[in-house]
Write a structure and sequence with these properties.
The protein contains 8 helices and no strands. It has about 200 residues and is mainly α. The chain has one domain. α3 packs antiparallel against α7 and α7 packs across α8. The chain is globular and about 60 Å long.
Amino acid sequence: MNSTPVFVIFVASIFTNNILLASFLGMCSFLVCSNRIDTAFGLGAAVTFVMLFTTMIDYLIYHYVLIPLKLEFLSYIIFIAVIAAFVQFVEMFVERFSPKLYYALGIFLPLITVNCAILGASLFMVLRKYNFAQSTFFGLGSGIGWALAIALMAGLREKMGYSNVPARLRGPGIVMLVTGIIAMAFMGFAGMLKLQ
């Protein structure tokens, strides 16, 4: 088992090992849904919720079902099934209690199912040999880190709407450039904490 303290895992997964800015997982919804800050916060909260609970459930299934039955090779399929079930729950919840957010997120809410950041969190949990508490805080920290990154990008994109961006950089060009700059800024935290 990994002996990294839970607090270190939590803080590192938000800043130094941000799943989006360090591993570049979950970029598709990050790039498309970061136009408005309210949409970014909603999607970030949904991703955080799904990532937290799927990491916990995937840990339990992996260690108490798949390993004892020697079915570790099914982990990808099982992890994706758990993610899909939780996304369906979140989608029904958001549609019921926040129709405005539901329509703002559109097709990207059900596409959380295939957000590779969520699957990546579960796979990193297995590869790094985290215990249950470490996996829980890693899932929560990774979700918060992803939400922080999309919220930062949404705020910057709203400000860039009032800026004179060169014609050839408008659209995806400036978004990719700003994403790279944000990733470099987060690398400044690398001296603080690092996950193995």
